[in-house]
User: What shape does this take?
Amino acid sequence: MDIRSQISMVFHLDKCIGCHTCSVACKNIWTDRKGTEYMWWNNVETKPGTGFPTRWEDQDKYRGGWELVDGELKLKSTSKSQTITNIFHNPNMPTMDDYYEPWAYNYKNLFDAPEADDQPTAKPVSMITGDYIDIESGPNWDDDLSGSPIYAENDLNLDVLSNEQREQLFAIERLMMFYFPRICNHCINPSCVASCPSGALYKRGEDGIVLIDQKRCRAWRSCVTACPYKKTYYNWNTGKSEKCILCFPRIETGQAPACFHSCVGRIRYLGVLLYDASKIEETAKKPDLELVDAQRDMILDPFDEDVIKEAKKNGIADSTIKAAQNSPVYKFVKEWGVALPPHVEYRTLPMLFYVPPMLPVRSAQEGGSVRSLNEEYFPDFDKARVPIKYLASMFGGGNESHLRYVLRKQSAIRAYRRALTVGDVDLLQAEKSLLAADCNPKEAEEMYKLTSLCTFEERFVIPAAHREEAIEMMKDPLEHKQEMGFGFRDEPERGM
Assistant: This one.
């Protein structure tokens, strides 16, 4: 075993209210500079919808992620023979039109306009050219437009549905939506890192966070194309690529990332996972339908004595092992099996997992009124407003069994808690439904508490950074402290 530690995340989609507070928090801290106007390291999409950038899931267009060719993993975006060619011309890289042209407003005209019969306006001005523009798209442009024939029907995940299912989905009485917040997944097998000709992208050994060395970046932009989630961006002002850094300066001081800390719906969880790095290639080569199970098999039990022993041999600190034992991510992903990776078929092995939303059941219209068709304990997921194939396309690599398992367990816990709190559900029957959903009252209570009544300390289990040990690999820590204090930064430049 080659045991590594990884800072991992879970987003509970049933709790997301689409307030975009996470996006604003990230924007204010990291991407409010020239050249980053269009960047949203954190964005919240509406599903069904096209997302940001437009149709980012279409890898026939963008060529992101990995693919299996004759049993070997290959980057979709490039190869050894194409690297030089793609440096000078990359036809698969998203353009400004795929994102949007960022704009501000001419507030001077609004405030300084002379008295007139009309209300003055603040015309939109391009933040790139400085010219007036007509706004045609923007961040979260399709927000809440789940029934739109322009945006929602262009969702790539709908391609797995039949024409009849698509027509039914967009019938007015069946419309539904859910919010889909996205950040960099800090993958175990990141295609962005593999694609960089200058080696500027790297994955930190101590916590698995994927970063870009700004000094080594040469603006090849291969990473922009290679990331299938389109979470690497090009700064047109500095000529460097940038991406989510998971607020590592905050993590190193025991604080949750800004988007996690500010989350109004408390949908975000952060913790440590221990995994076997020797299985990365083997796992990534599995067929699509087996990828979720294979990725879970990579995640190791932090209480296993053999795992602890091997982890210590690899230099993983006791505090990190303890954090892995208390990790909420481990519970959601491995112990309870209710959190799934997004688009696992890209084979990057993402370390951001999602608890899928509960599907609203189909409604029937009778006499001008709409009533819900709901079974007593287990809804018929095949009668849900969104076909289960749609969610399986997003989170299960097409494997519907994973989605049925998650939704069935969530439904059983909901019925069980309703029996305890409201009393209109028979408790004995509710307990039987738990057992039928591979759950028990103890596990149900644990899931309920972590989902609904959790504290900051339970949601975010962050290990000590141990930067002093990292410094020891490069120089004497005492000498380093005398020179400039602990931390990684350039020595001060003095002179004229």
In short: The two ends are 54 Å apart (CA to CA).
